[in-house]
Amino acid sequence: MKPMRPLISVSLALALAACAGGPPPDIATPAPDLPATFLYAGEADTAGAVDSLLPEQDPAFAVLSEAAIADAPSLAEAIARVEAARAGARGAGAARLPNIAADANVTGTRINPAQFGEGASSFIETEQVSYGANLTATWDADLFGRLKSQERAAIARIDSASASAAAVRNSLIAEIAGSVIDWRVLAARTDALTADTKAAMRLADLARTREEAGIAPGFDRIRAEAAASASRSALAALNSERARIIGRLITLTGQTGGEVAAALASDAAAFDLGPVPGTLPSDLLANRPDVLAAMAELAATDADLAASARARFPSLNLSAIVGLLAFSPGDLFDEDSIVGTLAAGLAGPLLDFGRLDAEIDGAAANKKAAFAVYRGAVFQALGDAEAAYGLIAAADNEAALAEKERAELDRAASIANSRYTAGLASFLEVLEARRAADASGDRAAAAAGRAERARVLLWQALGGTPPRIEPNEG
Fold first, then answer.
1. Is residue 241 part of a domain?
2. Separation CA 152–CA 304 (nearest Å)
3. How many angstroms separate the CA atoms of 249 and 313, rounded?
4. Chain centre to alpha carbon of residue 207
5. 270-281 confidence digits (pLDDT tens)
6. Residue 410's Cα: distance from chain center in Å?
7. Residue 54 per-residue DSSP state
8. 3-class SS of residue 44
9. Res 471: pLDDT
10. Pairwise CA distance, residues 38 & 280, whole Å
11. What totals of helices (H) and strands (E) does the chain contain, helices first?
12. I need a surface site. Which of 4, 57, 299, 302 has the fewest CB within 10 A?
């Protein structure tokens, strides 16, 4: 027992020194207070679904979104980060298990027998070859859970990376949907401007006929032709918008320009501004990927803090070696060649001059920062959803009024044209009525597009379609 007393004394000293450090600092992370309802959500019994907020019936959106999910570089990067997090969690879990290794060696040794005195060369071999093979095992018993906390942090970071990948996916799909909507708006504006050009040319032809008959000045024809030229100029300006949209979709989807253009060439139905889903602010905590990612990172920093605090306590390391040692190949498997070692070591900090405390303080600061990021993500989600609901209400009202304006101005232009043909109105009245009707068609198409885009913003603000992320393997 006497040889064990120093070991027991050292072990007690290590344990007492570790316990004197106290528990890790308590970092409060209260749940953010959310309102019971959204201010701009409208009727609570709205029948719309989240998926219906996307232009799912548009074949171009279906083709391009599927291509992006398969080939988009940004999504591939996010998925690779999930794989890296999974590998980190597997490594942290493996660190809690024994480490077993094997080795074999042949060692040649030559000595000078004179170091043992005169005449030693007569009975001491100067050269010797040994043959050995060993099986070794080491294990950290993790008495106080430091390695377990590290594994818990690594598993939480899988959740964080998975949620971040879902956020990238949602952003990607939302941008593709917005770009497809912009393309359809350009098509509607093209139709409206083409109709405007044709109407202006009809007026110019009528003015030319009246000019040739000597009953109207040539100025009327010139003004009508100028109106047609203005519409043609607006049509030409739309081509730059088309190029910008195609370029953006190439970046988003990883497809070629030809493939993107082919997908956009498909026909699509008119915008369907259906009802929006009624949700609660509390739903954001479970649906928004950025909130889930921040929540998982907060859990990871909590586990990091626990692991840092538990580094104060002693660690128990067990090791064993079983091997063969012989000085002749033929003797390697003799019973006398079997050698072995069994050891247990207890180690812990006694005097580190504040190194562990600094590490703990750093981990505590990281947890505070993670909590601030989590709160920021929650209120970002709340603000995004509130703004999207309000934007939909405003955009729907604008679209309805723009469509009503278009119908009324088309009717006014038709009446003005009839009055002019009957000699009851001047050409200037007809031209002004036609210009107003032409501009209203362009505005109505743009307003409908903004209302549809607002729905995509709400889809993203509510967390989008639930991501297809594989469950943790940890």
1. yes
2. 9
3. 56
4. 60
5. 777 778 888 888
6. 47
7. S
8. coil
9. 43
10. 7
11. 10, 4
12. 4
d(CA 17, CA 22): 10
Collapsing DSSP to helix, strand or coil, 173 comes out as helix
Torsion of the alpha carbons at 296, 302, 303 and 309, rounded to the nearest 10: 170
Q: Residue 38: give the domain boundaries.
A: 33-96+144-313+358-461
Residue 190 makes CB contacts below 8 A (sequence gap 6+) with: 235, 238
68 neighbors 253 (Cβ within 8 angstroms): yes
How is residue 166 annotated by DSSP?
H
What's the first-to-final CA gap in the chain, in angstroms? 44
Number of domains in the chain: 1
**How many residues in total does the chain contain?**
474
Residues in Cβ contact with 322 at an 8 Å cutoff, skipping those fewer than 6 apart: 134, 135, 338, 339, 340
The reply to whether 420 falls in a domain is yes
pLDDT in tens, 80-138: 999 999 999 999 999 889 999 999 989 888 877 777 666 666 667 777 888 888 999 99
Mean pLDDT of 144-167: 92
- Structural contact between residues 460 and 232, judged by C-beta atoms closer than 8 angstroms: no
pTM score, two decimals? Answer: 0.80
Two structure tokens written together for 286: 């479970």
- Please name the residues in contact with 368: beta carbons below 8 A apart, sequence gap of 6 or more: 27
Report the distance separating Cα 379 and Cα 31, nearest Å.
12
Cα 116 to Cα 111, 128, 312: the distances in Å are: 10, 16, 49
**CATH number for the domain harbouring residue 42:** 1.20.1600.10
Query: What is the residue type of 301?
Result: T
Tracing tokens 């099986």 back to the chain, one arrives at: 135
Largest distance between two CA atoms of the chain:
143
Asked if 177 and 334 count as a contact pair (C-beta separation under 8 A), the reply is no
Q: Which amino acid, one-letter code, is at 70? A: A
Tokens of 108: 């040649």
Question: What are the tokens at 341?
Answer: 């070692």
CA distances 10 to 113, 314, 355, 357, Å, are 42, 11, 21, 22
Sheet holding 315-326, edge to edge: 99-110, 127-140, 315-326, 338-347
- How far is it, in rounded angstroms, from Cα 60 to Cα 261? 9
Q: Helices 218-253 & 146-212, crossing angle to 10 degrees?
A: 160
Which one, of 281, 68, 54, 287, lies nearest residue 167 by Cα?
Answer: 287
Q: Is the distance from CB of 464 to CB of 286 less than 8 angstroms? A: no
* Structure tokens given for 164: 């971040």
Which candidate, 371, 414, 352, 348, places its Cα nearest to that of 16? 348
Match 């950290």 to its residue by tokens: 140
Helix 218-253 and helix 257-264: axis angle, to 10°? 120
